Amino acid sequence: MTTISISPAQGTWVVRAGGAVIGESSRALELAEGDLPFVIYFPREDIATALLDATAHKTSCPHKGEASYYSIMSKSKTYANAVWSYEDPKPEVAAIKGYLAFNVQDGVAVEQV
Fold this sequence. Notes:
By secondary structure, the protein is mostly beta strands. It has a single domain, classed as Domain of unknown function (DUF427) (Metal Binding Protein, Guanine Nucleotide Exchange Factor, Chain A). It is built from no helices and ten strands. It has strands at residues 4-8, 13-17, 20-25, 29-33, 39-42, 52-61, 65-73, 78-85, 100-102, 108-112. It comes from Tropicibacter oceani.
C-alpha cells in the first residue's frame, strides 16, 4: 500500500514558466507519495489561470483519482499538459481538490523562495 501524506508546504513557493512567475503562494500543500519526490500543489486562486488552457488529457491514479490537465501558454512557448488537478479526488486526498500541480521541466520550475 502506498502511503500518501499531505501537509502545508513550508514558506512561500513560486511557479515559473518561460521565465515569468505565473503563481506564488504561502498556502501551498506538499504531497508525499511513497518513495516518489514530493509534489507542491498550489491553490488555484494563487495561479494566473488565464495562462492555462484545459486539454482533453486525463490520467488515473489508484490512490488519488482522475487528473485533469492544462497546458501553460507562455509568451514564447506552450507547455503541453504541464499542469494537473484532481477535481474530484478520492476521500483520502480530499485536501488537494481543485489545487494545481506542475510538471517541472525545461522552462517550468517550482521553487521555494
